[in-house]
Write a structure and sequence with these properties.
Rossmann fold; 342 residues; homodimer; 12 strands; DNA-binding; 434 Repressor (Amino-terminal Domain)
DNA sequence: TACATTTGTTCAAACGTTTGAAATATAACT
DNA sequence: AGTTATATTTCAAACGTTTGAACAAATGTA
């Protein structure tokens, strides 16, 4: 039942040639005869040979492993990003090993250590929200491990980073609402101390300025990010004497809550009130009216992060890699909730 | 910039002792003096030593890697299961490497090969829907790799399998609706050639039989699993002369479609029509009324699968592992859409 | 004192592969 | 046949760690 797995040496003995011949034949070495290559392939197949990556990796100093660290695997944004990463890295012959930080810095640090022990060639990470110190990543770099950060990044750290342009996104969304004919846009935001929200708000303000409109403090509600909070915030806005005729909610869940409030007030969406969400959560297509939102390109972000790692891996010797920060421009997903008012 | 990473030998030289002493000290060998252990630890820390798992693994014949194969990483059910897997395996000191089959058998087979090369100690998989042949898993087993299947399993294959009891789930859901006072339950199903749907339908029928009710063929609609299909199916049912007063939808998306149809007909939920979904997709708490559904325990499934692998790994020598099929009993999540009619 | 035990450490081989240099076989010219 | 070039294969060392056996030193026992 438990017979030892066949190795390159077994194949060599079986064929009466040397192990190195087998190795070279399998790796398609130019100086090996086609004949031996064929025969080796056949015998390997026949004996059920599987290459041992640990031996290969040890010898070559390359594991073929890339580590990915996210706060939680099951959060839609991250799992989609991981898919994007796997798609390109798998294609390129790398295996990805994943770890969760549970949004705790110390777990993140520990995970980096696990990865370094595993000899990963690169680490792609979206950091825990309280991670301030980046010495664990610096340690990785010192060990020759490539590092790429996405979405939740450390601007000060000199590595490739992929993020989305929240300002631009909010700009586009706000413009879209005005273009559709809505005249007064209320904004419901998550905690403004978090950078993304802050930037989105800035985008909104920028459009007001650009189009020569007055910024009205009272049209902004800052709240936490639960469904209920979205509902309350919307209620507060809609119950004003001059309620807005559109709500730009800086997260889809907030938008959902807002929709509930609007519906309770008997207002038609999108005819009387336009709604715009943010993030493209998967439920946004399921609600009614379907929710216009901003695609954060989680999958593409994963793609980009993976490509960035590949670039670094390939630029290996040519010492000339200059860390770059890529800012992806998000795309509006116009659905029913914000469509053509007039 | 690119200095070689310190090895056990470097530590040994630095301290003037032998590499084996260092190795033994680090692995807390009983015959090593506390003094040396302390010192080794200190120097290791000081030189920034990181163990090389490839060397360790090669020598020990263990990689500390577990492979996970799912159709798609980003599907909520799977990513949640992966979280469940990572939680217990990470804790146990294993790293998990993941791969997607994209629901294609050949990719699944290829992925198994990749994992075998990577010397994973175990594989946890949810198979592609068209996978019929299981020789790739048999090959893995022959290589001494443990195999555990979850959710989408191969009953014929003699390995640990974790699945949920669809029959039981449907039974509970149906009973719940009757208990709430609904009298006539329409059922909207996905393709009945797929086993889970078939089993759920059976559960529904069983309750009718148990409670002495007549089974009415006309209350069953079989359709594909899109939102639109759910809506149409529900419309069809609600527009009958004697429409049902509750709809048991065998997937949450179908339920969402059904809710739209019901709402359009001006019927109140849950007062006039009760709705029950299946799977606990994350949007179910966001809709209004919040959707009662069946929790498929994706995370726990991952936990169980991981524990099963651990058991096998630990039972290694004791040759006495008997493959078992665990059937998890799903839990109803009673929310607003099915609550207390009278 | 001689011998056995215990404690701490070193030796040397092994895990399975890769790789440049060296060796051999084969073919190609004078 | 002798030489040179070329194609193919083998040699041997290396990658970093672990591990049982062997050794040495310290301690205990008779």
């Amino acid at each position: 039942m438990k017979k030892r797995k066949p190795t390159i040496v077994d194949i060599a003995n079986y064929m009466g040639i040397s192990p190195s011949a087998v190795s070279k034949a399998m790796s398609n070495h130019p100086r090996m005869s086609e004949k031996t290559k064929k025969e080796v392939a056949k015998v390997a197949e026949q004996l059920g040979y599987q290459r041992n990556n640990m031996a290969t990796g040890l010898r070559k100093g390359k594991s073929g492993l890339i580590g990915v660290i996210v706060p939680y695997i099951h959060v839609n944004f991250f799992s989609t990003a991981i898919k994007g990463i796997e798609d390109v890295l798998g294609q390129a012959g790398y295996s990805i090993v994943i770890g969760q930080s549970k949004d705790e810095t110390n777990k993140e640090v520990a995970q980096v250590d696990v990865f370094l022990n595993a000899q990963v060639e690169g680490i792609i990470a979206s950091i825990a929200s309280n991670t301030k110190d980046s010495s664990h990543f610096i340690k990785a770099l010192a060990n020759g491990v490539k590092v790429v950060l996405f979405d939740r990044t450390i601007p000060e750290l000199d590595v490739d980073q992929i993020m989305i342009d929240d300002f631009d996104a909010a700009t586009k969304a706000t413009k879209h609402l005005f273009d559709q004919g809505y005249g007064k846009i209320g904004l419901i935001s998550g905690p403004l101390e978090l950078l993304p929200y802050k930037r989105r708000l800035d985008g909104y303000k920028a459009v007001l300025a650009q189009t020569g409109r007055e910024f009205d403090e009272n049209l902004i509600v800052e709240t936490d990010i639960s469904l209920e909070s979205g509902k309350k915030a919307a209620a507060q806005l809609m119950d004003r004497k001059n309620p807005p005729d559109a709500l730009f909610c800086l997260s889809d869940v907030l938008a959902l809550g807002a929709m509930n409030a609007v519906r309770e007030r008997g207002k038609k969406m999108p005819e009387e009130v336009g709604i715009m969400g943010f993030s493209n959560e998967n439920f946004t297509t399921y609600v009614s009216p379907s929710l216009s939102t901003v695609d954060q390109f989680s999958e593409q972000m994963g793609n980009h992060a993976a490509k960035a790692i590949l670039n670094q891996l390939r630029a290996e010797e040519s010492h000339n890699h200059v860390p770059s920060k890529q800012v992806l421009s998000p795309k509006l997903l116009i659905r029913e909730s914000s469509k053509i008012r007039k």
